[in-house]
Amino acid sequence: MPLTDSPVKGMYLREEGRFFFLQDRRLKTQGRQGGLVIMRMKALDNGQILNKTIKSGTKVEYVTPETKEVQYLYNDASGVYFMDMETYESISIPKDVIGEYINYLKEGESILILTYEGNILSVKENPTVVLEVTEADDAVKGNTANSATKLVTVETGYKLHVPLFIKRGDKIKINTESGTYTSKAN
């Protein structure tokens, strides 16, 4: 079990048998008392966001996850289902663990999941995804008082605001961290 005294953003930590993803960390100095590390962590078992403060130099246990290719099948009220590409077994991950990223998963798409000692930690999120617009209203002439956007629906059912020139059938790039339109895909 590897330990480090300098946790960094993007690291996976294990604490009291639970796994966490380190979303952010800040250093705070306190004069003579030394520094503090303020960590923002996402619990991988239920998606809860926690803030934890430790003294600078305190050792934390980190894990190095392995990746496994799976195919996205479907989701329902209880979870998100994937098929292991090697064993063809069905794998279920709680919706809370995947969070908003569920909006960008296409049926039949291959993605990577992160595992450690047989435990599924999370899905490997891509910073951007390309999805096809399935529903788009026509732009209303003269509707440009504020930033000229309209609401569209992409193939996963996710709705977002895009520029007026985007139409049904277009493929668009979406930033998965903010859930916003970035550009039209080629």
Automatic annotation (TrEMBL):
Which residues are the signal sequence here?
none
Pathway annotation: Protein biosynthesis; polypeptide chain elongation
Please list the residue ranges annotated as the Translation elongation factor P/YeiP central domain. 67-121
Say which family it is in: Belongs to the elongation factor P family.
| Gene Ontology molecular-function annotations | translation elongation factor activity
May I have one GO cellular component term? Answer: cytosol
Domain of life here?
Answer: Bacteria
PROSITE patterns annotated for this entry?
EFP
The chain's coiled-coil residues are: none
- According to UniProt, the name of this protein is Elongation factor P
Q: Where in the cell is it found?
A: Cytoplasm
Organism whose genome encodes this protein: Candidatus Dojkabacteria bacterium HGW-Dojkabacteria-1
Residues spanning the membrane: none
The UniProt entry lists the main location of this chain as: cytoplasm
GO annotation (BP), single: peptide biosynthetic process
